[in-house]
Amino acid sequence: MRTLYWILAGTLAALAGLFALNNRGELTVDLWPLGPQTQMPVFVALVGALYIGFLFGALVAWLAGGASRKRAREMARKAATLDIELQELQARQAGAPEKAAPPIPLPPGSPF
Predict the structure, then answer these.
(1) Paired residues of 41 in beta bridges
(2) Which residues contact 26 (CB under 8 A, 6 or more apart)?
(3) What residues of the chain score a pLDDT lower than 70?
(4) pLDDT for position 112
(5) Per the CB 3.0–4.6 Å rule, which of 44, 64, 73, 111 could disulfide with 40?
(6) Mapping DSSP to helix (H, G, I), strand (E, B) and coil, where does residue 38 land?
(7) Is 76 within a domain?
(8) d(CA 93, CA 99)
(9) Residues 29, 25, 14, CA angle at the centre, nearest 5°?
(10) Does any domain span residue 101?
């Protein structure tokens, strides 16, 4: 499985390198509210857009997982509390003398 990963990763890296070499033409990018126009190679603009999209997707996924992370923290706290309670009960049970079974009452008029 790891070998397959490296084969695929190497292939994608080689394709990205070829893409960058073949798309070195200049592109004018105008980020209107942020500043003046800038010129950059086509591959820089495309890779930058992919990077920004990746970061945006990671942020959305992180925000969406907030409820699950909160529930996991609560369950971990509850498990820790229950573990402490179990240890206290086991310690109390180990230190308590064993109770003998109550004697069985004899019927009235028994010779014993």
Answers:
(1) 26
(2) 39, 40, 41, 42
(3) 98-100, 110-112
(4) 61
(5) 44
(6) strand
(7) yes
(8) 11
(9) 110
(10) no
